[in-house]
Amino acid sequence: MITVQSLTADVLVVGAGLAGLHTATRLAELGHDVLLAERRADLTAGIRTTGIFVRKTLDDFTLPEEHLGPPIRRAVLYPPSLRRPVELGSDRDEFRVADMPGLYASVASSALAAGVRMRLRTRFVHHEDGVAGLDGPDAPLSVRARFVVGADGARSQVARRLGLDVNRRMLVGAEEVYASTGLAGGPPTFHCVLDPTQAPGYLAWVVDDGEHVHVGVAGYPDRFPRGLTEALARFRRSAPGLPPDLPPEPLERRGGPIPVGGVLRRIGCSAGLLVGDAAGAVSPLTAGGLDPCLRLSDHAVAVLDEARRTGSAEPLRHYDGAVMRSNFRGRIALRSCLSSVRTPALTETGFSLLRTPPGRAIARRILFGDRSFPDVDAPATSAPADPSGCVMETRR
Length: 396
What we know:
Elements: E1 5-14, H1 18-29, E2 34-37, E3 52-54, H2 55-60, E4 74-78, E5 86-89, E6 95-97, H3 100-114, E7 117-119, E8 123-128, E9 131-135, E10 140-150, H4 157-162, E11 170-179, E12 189-193, E13 204-208, E14 212-219, H5 228-238, E15 252-259, E16 268-269, E17 272-274, H6 290-310, H7 321-325, H8 329-340, H9 344-354, H10 357-368
Parallel strand pairs: 1-2, 1-10, 2-7, 4-12, 10-17
Antiparallel strand pairs: 3-6, 4-5, 8-9, 9-10, 11-14, 11-15, 12-13, 13-14, 16-17
């Protein structure tokens, strides 16, 4: 006979990436009983993000300084030919690349200190009538929680089980992280290569901050004729900005899906809500997700805190992805434009525009701009989503 362990919590958070850890910690700090379930056995393994934090995030959030690399103020954009790149500099610290294993360990420690109960090697299975089923390392778990937070990535199972929207438009990316052997002829730099034959619909990159070198590619999965691994290896052989004595083996290999369809319309209901990649909280244009995940998580915490204090699901009406999505129209349109560029010749033509003063101004605004994730506070005049229409899928 299988023994099912029963637990209770105010909030069950599924997924211990940055969005899940941040949400769980903030809720626990506000006095809520939080259970955090994560399928991995080790939070420092299986990392998918590049760990590039933009200035706006660094300005507005407190991150462990000891796990942030040197500031980066220079970006170089390359056409497919790699000739006549567009160099952009800033007088401010625009990017810092985090040591993500160390950062995750630090944030997880803060979560535990705040009172979060963390269950590793524990997989979300189903949700029905306010009870979540989890598969734990020793026995199945039955968790009765007032709310469930889906922080379980781009292919969220929580979203499916709660009947919320799921990501449809996604890129896929892969990255290798090496120990830096010294900056290759300049200051810390973010090198971006726009070449539809190497990174279809997105870009390939080299980031060298003097401590680590990140080499990666991303694009639409169906446009890598020989697969993503081969594409990364091919790019590494000719990538600009690499030190000549790059170590033969990387310290880490990362990869995973990147949702780029914008914030999903239906990201909350009376039973819970979605944060991070699960909610599509990634810039459709730049595919940056660290800043959006923190900002949307803060909004989720405010909504859940009010719901728990009032004993009503009414506050979840204002967790409305459709309202947020309206602020992404321009970026979604630009994403469609990028996805339609399929030839190097067309990309080279685009670079002739980037080299003009207006083109450089646009590039600076995208890379160095002050805008971040759009305001997530739902306007009082908005038509809120109905939180009672939560569709529950039972276990099959």
